[in-house]
């Protein structure tokens, strides 16, 4: 009897082991060499800081044993990084960090890679966009003031942002279309440069990630008019003039019918990267999100924290690409061949 | 005198044994990075960044800035010894530094460069200590038209002072603009002059241009001249260092003028590169020995070095107060700031005075330590020049090729550097000036962006450049600098023949 039971037990154990084996192998894969964290931006940029925070969180908390090297590949608006993924399709030691640029670049620009050269791992956080003004110099206190001004003088009211045909200009074109206005968009090299122009009273408004204008808000040189999200931000810490992030109206509330415009911070690998490596790194990114360093980063940048991976994430990406296709088609920014 | 009290608190933070050790370590690392082929300050600082994650922000920023000072000094070293500028801002140092080194006076050239750089940096820190609260607000007054006016002044001072024929200067500037145009255009978001090459889509790195023009170009020229480069004559006397130090007070006019230009260009968005070029150009114009500039003239080293470092120090303040980095290295350091949990911006001064004033105090100490350390390395570096050309020549070639490759790990860049080497050789042979070309490469796209942003802003009206007193004054000074040689000649003609001849002599061929 006892023997029989132990037989059955052994069989059951063998069965579970057999079933669990692939899972165990997946969990056991560990990098044995230094891992390259490839950034689609130059040192100091938003994606660079994101990557270095991940690097710091992993190293400080001992989540990986091998060294992590941050490699900047900013060439061709970041397409250099993703072309590098195309050249190393099966590497288990190269992870790519970017934004929506990974799937938006091939729509507008001739690049040396296709979206299909990348394997999506995860999106970790999303940057939100806010419309700012300097009320002291422009007299613009609300989103309505801004739109009224733009309607009164078509093509004369200016909005600053980072780069041309990128996220900021996209937001401005969305505002124009939603309100029937004509705004003069002026591109600067970075979001902080654009913020300074508004803070100094040279330009009426700008669109920006919260952290890029935070300090100017505290100093009273900038004021947030509305945020491009479907719901108000959660952070209730008072920043300036008794106002917190949560007190900023959504743009829909404020009368600009642009619902949700986010910039996801995305992580990728080459299209033929080994499954156990992608599983390992996806899991690792999830662990990063629990570290104090990363939580502090997300809080400081007033980001929307939402870990996305797997099939649901792929569906999200497809939806994103379709959205961008539509917006860029309307703006006339798509590559002629598409 | 509130600033003074805060500075004293800063010194209490910066001058602990631990921080002084960090400064020494940072400066030494920076020197190595600055001298080593192609590594350069931005790469060095980003390599070091992960180490700082576990440090407290003050120690971390002291380490990174000390490394930056060290790298700047290292960059001047290669400018003088090998004619390869390590940083954009040390290009102007090659004009007189390298000829002086070739004449066997490398020790003197290095000492002059390091000492004036140290003085410049200290003046810069002094200015930001006194004016810290005012500078941040002043910088906010700079919109695109003001940016353009600052760049215009730099270009105007250079065109106005140019040595060779105005036509050749113009050609040189135009070619420089063409090179600056390559790559992604900020305003339209389109690639320009990339010929469908992915490697060109991010523009041509300034480092590739100078490695080619100066390093390889000089090498070709030396070979062409028949191996005249004999470093053996280089005198290697320690006493030369002290004699040169004693010589410094003689250049006080140049130092004061250069430091003023440097501080102005550092506080305004001109930056160290524009400052060093402008200071060199104005030095040539106003120095009594101006006609000897370019042939190994001490003032030709003192002027750009003082301005470069005073601008570099002054530029740190708007960077902290506005959160806009002025250089690649500064961008990496700012990234570090955010990872350590600090937000650069106007409020940093009130929320973290210990950090800001600790940093400012460390700039006094760090620069002093850097000057002493680099002066101690002078004999070592000068020794390199004693090797015969058959040894140094190939060494320079290797430095150039590795340097070109490390900028972005592109094989393509090596070919590009070789092409620029031939361009540099041709320029020298045909007697076209290189300096305006380099200035146009460095500032061309910034000036263009500022101009087009102004035009977008004003709806195409040029009046925007004369609307406010600030921008109008700067534009007026720019035009004055541009026309100075003609005004000078006019006066010369009016005052009689003798003076006219002198005015002509003042413009070396």
Q: What's the helical proportion of residues of chain A?
A: 40-55%
Kindly give the count of domains of chain A. Answer: 2
Into which percentage range does the β-strand content of chain A fall? Answer: 15-25%
CATH superfamily of the largest domain in chain A: Bordetella uptake gene, domain 1
Tell me the CATH topology of the largest domain in chain A.
Answer: D-Maltodextrin-Binding Protein, domain 2
The two chains with the largest interface, and their residue counts, are:
A-B, 62 and 50 residues
Strand order of the largest sheet of chain A: 2-1-3-12-4-13
Number of strands of chain B: 2
CATH class bucket of the largest domain in chain A? Alpha Beta
Number of helices of chain A: 12
Assembly state: heterodimer
Radius of gyration of chain B (Å): 22 Å
Helix tally of chain B equals 21
Can you give me a brief rundown of this structure?
Chain A has twelve helices and 13 strands. With 338 residues, chain A is of the alpha/beta class.
List keywords for this structure.
heterodimer, A: 338 residues, alpha/beta, D-Maltodextrin-Binding Protein, domain 2, 2 domains, 12 helices, globular, disordered N terminus, B: 509 residues, two-stranded antiparallel ribbon
Q: Would you mind describing this structure in some detail?
A:
- The complex is a heterodimer of chains A (338) and B (509).
- Chain A is α/β, with parallel strands linked by helices and 338 residues long.
- Chain A has two domains: 161 residues, Bordetella uptake gene, domain 1 (D-Maltodextrin-Binding Protein, domain 2, 3-Layer(aba) Sandwich); 118 residues, D-Maltodextrin-Binding Protein, domain 2 (3-Layer(aba) Sandwich), CATH 3.40.190.10.
- Chain A is built from twelve helices and 13 strands.
- In chain A, the strands form three sheets. A six-stranded mixed sheet of chain A has the order 2-1-3-12-4-13. In chain A, strands 7-6-8-5-9 form a five-stranded mixed sheet, with helices on both faces.
- In chain A, strand 6, helix 7 and strand 7 form a beta-alpha-beta unit.
- In chain A, helix 2 runs antiparallel to helix 11.
- Chain A starts with a helix and ends in a 7-residue tail after the last helix.
- The relative contact order of chain A is 0.16.
- Chain B has one domain.
- Chain B has 21 helices and two strands.
- In chain B, a hairpin with a 6-residue loop joins strand 1 and strand 2.
- In chain B, helix 17 crosses helix 18.
- Chain B is globular.
- At the A-B interface, helix 2, strand 2, helix 3, strand 7 and helix 8 of A face helix 14 and helix 19 of B.
